[in-house]
Amino acid sequence: xxxxxxxxxxxxxxxxxxxxxxxxxxxxxxxxxxxxxxxxxxxxxxxxxxxxxxxxxxxxxxxxxxxxxxxxxxxxxxxxxxxxxxxxxxxxxxxxxxxxxxxxxxxxxxxxxxxxxxxxxxxxxxxxxxxxxxxxxxxxxxxxxxxxxxxxxxxxxxxxxxxxxxxxxxxxxxxxxxxxxxxxxxxxxxxxxxxxxxxxxxxxxxxxxxxxxxxxxxxxxxxxxxxxxxxxxxxxxxxxxxxxxxxxxxxxxxxxxxxxxxxxxxxxxxxxxxxxxxxxxxxxxxxxxxxxxxxxxxxxxxxxxxxxxxxxxxxxxxxxxxxxxxxxxxxxxxxxxxxxxxxxxxxxxxxxxxxxxxxxxxxxxxxxxxxxxxxxxxxxxxxxxxxxxxxxxxxxxxxxxxxxxxxxxxxxxxxxxxxxxxxxxxxxxxxxxxxxxxxxxxxxxxxxxxxxxxxxxxxxxxxxxxxxxxxxxxxxxxxxxxxxxxxxxxxxxxxxxxxxxxxxxxxxxxxxxxxxxxxxxxxxxxxxxxxxxxxx
Length: 536
What we know:
Layout: E1 12-17, H1 23-31, E2 36-41, H2 46-52, E3 56-59, H3 78-84, E4 88-92, H4 94-102, E5 106-122, E6 137-150, E7 156-161, E8 166-171, E9 176-179, H5 191-202, H6 211-225, E10 232-236, H7 240-253, E11 257-263, H8 271-283, E12 287-291, H9 293-300, H10 306-332, E13 338-340, H11 345-350, E14 381-383, H12 391-400, H13 405-408, H14 431-448, E15 457-471, E16 474-487, E17 495-496, H15 501-514, E18 518-523
Parallel strand pairs: 1-2, 1-3, 3-4, 4-9, 10-11, 10-13, 11-12, 13-14, 16-18
Antiparallel strand pairs: 5-6, 5-7, 7-8, 8-9, 15-16, 16-17
């Protein structure tokens, strides 16, 4: 259950996703212009597209070639529907080539491939580049091996790369446009201006999307979905997402919301005590704490595979929630019907498989217990009020709801907890206890240095690797741990954070001197991509 996009006070820009790593950025860039945007699979049935009633449809980039027989495409009837209903269509990279091929043009393997930073030159100061002058140049980010050879009837080239390849096309009568480069990335410095001009000046889009509108609509959706006597339970983790989700639902239905905080043995240092105190003191949410440490850890014993760990944890959470629901039924005479989760838009995107794979959407990076880790026979129906939002948007929504700033600024914490920060078997020796202590030292050091709010996410990882060391003039054979800190806007891409050498020196000394069983500290300097933020 989520808010109806048609009810949001803004024209909708719908992105059809063909698997580009940048697709989510298109969504974010458009929302930054106060225009509501959604991303769905590029191979969605026409009915799914038309029901959303978009003003603009953007065809994303992707790793495919239009020449291959299984390359994904928009559904039959899409072009005719767009023309008949006055819908504007913009193809980006693969999306441009899809337009050319499907409308009767020709795409061929390029004589010169174009990857990375390139320059383009405006050939016609009309349509997409009406605000430019012929001969104007700009730097853009290219990522294509195929190129347009023959345009469909009625189309014209409005910009080319300095190598002579087609960089931008349009058919203003049909309202079809195309960019061979990626305007959504920061490596295309004028890309945001191009998107803004396209949406407002070319398409005449209405920019009326505000977070307050979304909140009002979400409250209406919750009230219309949950019956007047129905009960709802919420899985609180202590993180930003579940806290904001619970606050929204509590605002909508009041004391019919019953929150549960599960101690699954995979929490951070003193997390249970800290979180429950804050919920009661600051948020005034009714919270029941369930001790399920043995239940979770016994099921995880000996399990090495990250996906299997996630699936087990997702299943056990639902078992706990079902038991909690039964207890409530005994106490109140009525069983809860719904479960609230703080699922975010990136969770949905990362948990979906790729177009052209016989499944839907972009690559499955890992399953989230909010999305892909839940059992199919779950008895509770889901309420996911944040399902269309990115993390920074959730924080803005939380601010409107007066959620304490300290909660809103907390770094993200994965649903499976420390299970995905212990490589392999989480029950191995004292792995969890070692990890909690190392993580606490690292995070507290970041706070003491005044860097916590600058960093998107920071944490420690326990490695199942024993290394030789020297402590107190004695040989040691102890574990290595890794530290990770990244900067990001939404968690979809991330860069590692550059600490000063003295910070590393101090933290490593504290860890090795304070945590028994650790004699080596590593720092992860991998961005996302190619890595994910979490190690598992």
